[in-house]
Amino acid sequence: MLGSCTDLHIFDAGSVNGTRYCNEILLPHVRLFRGTMGLQFLFMDDSAPCHRTVAAKQLLESEDIERMDWPARYPDLNPIEHVWDFLGRRLAARTLPPITIRELRLALQDEWAAMPQQLIDTLILSMGRRCETCLSVRGDHIPY
User: Domain Tc1-like transposase DDE spans what residues (predicted)?
Assistant: First the structure.
């Protein structure tokens, strides 16, 4: 979020379904943010199957959490996609890349903690411009 970020949540082994998404993300994190931010809170996720389950939809509605509407095609509009790219490039640039799951987990946490807040803020603040550009090209590729 603008001005700060949470700790990185890494799911333990296994698939992330709607129930797990509700229990590990929505209830402990998103609900708290909604309580802190109040009515100005707008939740942004994507179209991952676990995000679009009936359980997730019902939980968001029961907590009065408004979900951001996304167009059918939204190339690279979600800031988190750029954050994942940044983390991937940082991991690839390491002298000793992680080999085990434990090393990967630690490396991701280190890189997440070292990520400049300015990067996150810039991505969030550019949302309006990127959405306008997407609309102007009717969902086609956005030239960079």
Answer: 41-94
